[in-house]
Amino acid sequence: MKRHTWGLFRWLPALLFLCAWMATLCFAQQCGPLTQGAAVRWTGEGAGVSPAELCQAERWAEEDGSTSFPDLVLWQEQENQMLTDQTGERSTPVRLLTVFGQADLLWPGAFLRGGWPIRGDIQGIALDEAATAALWGSTDVLGETVEWNGNTYTVRGVFRGDDGLALIQTEESSTQAMDRAILQFQDGGGGTETTAWLSQNGFPVGQVTDLPLLGGVLNALAALPGLVLGVVILLRLGERLWRLRRTPLLFAQCLIPVLAAGGLTLWVLGFPWEIPDRLIPTRWSDFDFWTALAGELTEELWTAVSGAMGARDGLLWPAALGCLVWALAACALLAPAGRLRPETGTGLLLACLGAAGSVFVLTLLSVRLGGGAPGRTWWLLPPLWLAADYGLRRHDAWLTADITPPGPALTAGEEERL
User: Which residues pair with 40 in a beta bridge?
Assistant: First the structure.
């Protein structure tokens, strides 16, 4: 009984590590659709950009033959807005998003029915399933009408969500400034390009959040536990070669397997890695660059979370925080998880199958929670760690083994005579 209990305790940290690592990936993937382009927020009474001003900028860009006009959506939020069905008997409070432009840039919702009202469709509305359940008790409500602020809207789509959310388009001639925007450039630009574009078109710059940079940071956090694990493997392989440097024959015997294992580890880790241009200094020892970058990132993070949290922020920032917390938890579990050390080839095979099976089950759970399938790092690195550790320990045992001469063992009397 004690032996089985000890085996369970050796497996438990490894399983918890995989759970924490997969949770980190799940949160990072949930943030993925929300970290495209740049988010802009204007503060102050009447601050922002109106649809009429944006349309004027589009006309000027067409006249100049410019092809760099970004995909863009302007939007603003209103809390506790009452929607009423066509009979006037049922009503429900919603958070109303009034937008102008491509609504899919703002809210990457998964639709149960229909889709977003397109630009210019000022009589359409999209509702989440909580709002439709409150008004009709069903999500099969395309074509139904609701009233708000004296206007009648036709339901164009129903998307997943339980927050009571509604979205409508406003007309192109509106001169009412909207205080938020999302911009996406064709070449994948972020905060720097957004600031330059706003200035060139005579718009107020506002507070710009570089969402691609945030997405890169979250992806790095998701990869961090695996990177630490891979670096440990590489260090142990390098240490083995260093120990054998004074024994040429043993060094030569070990060189090819170690290089093969190191190359396989780098491939599993996804090497070479892509680093955002913004994070590449002219000189790695340029402390002014790192100080300025840290200050800029801190300022952007504070700007994003210090203001009023919008509906989109309520999706992005809690998931980003979850990614950070689970990444730290996974790194903390690495040391106890490393105590799982199979002693036999059969034990190694069972451990590798257990790791792959655990990742498979966790992947199913992640998909149900809004994540996606993991890459090869999550599938291959745990078995690679187990195999590398097992191989190095077997090699240690071979190096330190007592070598007895061939032939039959001596009897006790023969040993005494010798």
Answer: 181, 208
> Does residue 238 lie in a domain region?
yes
Asked if 127 and 239 sit in the same domain, the reply is no
* Digit-coded pLDDT (tens) for 106-159: 877 788 999 999 999 999 999 999 999 999 999 999 999 999 999 999 999 999
pLDDT at residue 66 in the model:
74
Please choose, from the candidates 114, 118, 75, 81, the residue with its C-alpha nearest in 3D space to the C-alpha of residue 98. Answer: 75
Residue 110's domain comprises: 75-173
Provide the pLDDT for residue 275.
Answer: 67
What are phi and psi for residue 402, nearest 5 degrees?
-75, 125
pLDDT digit string (tens) for 66-119? Answer: 777 888 999 999 999 999 998 888 999 999 999 999 998 887 778 899 999 999
Residues 249 and 305 occupy one common structural domain: yes
Per-residue confidence band for 292, with pLDDT thresholds at 50, 70 and 90: low
Q: Evaluate whether residue 268 is within a structural domain.
A: yes
Band (pLDDT 50/70/90 cuts) for residue 409 is: very low
Tell whether 232 and 331 lie within a shared domain.
yes
In terms of Cβ atoms closer than 10 Å to its own Cβ (0-12, 13-18, 19+), residue 191 is buried
Q: What residues have CB less than 8 Å from 139, skipping those under 6 apart?
A: 112, 113, 129, 132, 133, 158
- 343-352, long-range: CB within 8 Å, 24+ apart, which pairs? 348/386, 348/387, 348/390, 351/383, 351/386, 352/382, 352/383, 352/386, 352/387
Dihedral (Cα; 277, 279, 281, 287), 10-degree rounding: 170
pLDDT confidence band for 294 (50 / 70 / 90): low
The answer on 350 and 217 residing in a single domain is: yes
Contacts 24+ apart (CB under 8 A), 386-389: 386/340, 386/342, 386/348, 386/351, 386/352, 386/355, 387/348, 387/352, 388/233, 388/236, 388/237, 388/261, 388/265, 389/236, 389/338, 389/341
Is residue 125 a part of any domain in this protein? Answer: yes
Q: How many residues does the chain have?
A: 418
Q: Are residues 355 and 287 in the same domain?
A: yes
Distance (Å, whole) CA 33 – CA 375: 18
Q: Check: CB of residue 49 under 8 Å from CB of residue 202.
A: no
Asked if residue 410 is part of any domain, the answer here is no
